Amino acid sequence: MTRLQALDPKEATGQAKELFNGIQSKLGMVPNMMRTMGNSPAVLQGYLNLSDALGKGSLGGRLGELIALAVAEANSCNYCLSAHSFIGEKLVLIDTDTLHMAREGRNKDPKIAAALFFAQTLVEKRGRVGSEDVDTVKAAGYTDGEVGEIVAHVALNVFTNYFNNTANTDIDFPVVEAETV
């Protein structure tokens, strides 16, 4: 059972209604996570702003989805695992084996694998990575800016993981459950 109530977009007012209208026009629906974030338009706006900014970053949508899966698995967030598995497969067209490997921090491409490993290291060490961790991801071919973007993707996904785990958000995607608890 949910612990925070999702708003009905048809009954929302003010800034929440405006944000929901924008999401509806872009996605064709307002996912439950965003409906729940709408209880505080500041929370929803913050999520949308960072998500939009990172979508325009140099890492691209594919790596962003893979990082989201690695972080969601590390935080046992079934909502995010479900959402990003669906988005990764249906919208970004990532094969299911690659999606599953990302949850384990792995990829056949060594550069992508380094980013996923770094993302998981950030979660594990709560952001307190060492020089060796940063040097390793940079040696794989990431610039200082791209390392910053990986950190930002991790932060965005930790936020959504914590939000959904707190809210116990109803999953409105095909359900995927964490293998680690």
TrEMBL record:
Residues 41-84 form the Carboxymuconolactone decarboxylase-like domain. Gene3D superfamilies: AhpD-like. InterPro entries: AhpD-like (IPR029032), AhpD_core (IPR004675), CMD-like (IPR003779). One of its GO terms (molecular function) is peroxiredoxin activity. Coiled coil: none annotated. Pfam families: CMD (PF02627). This is Carboxymuconolactone decarboxylase family protein.
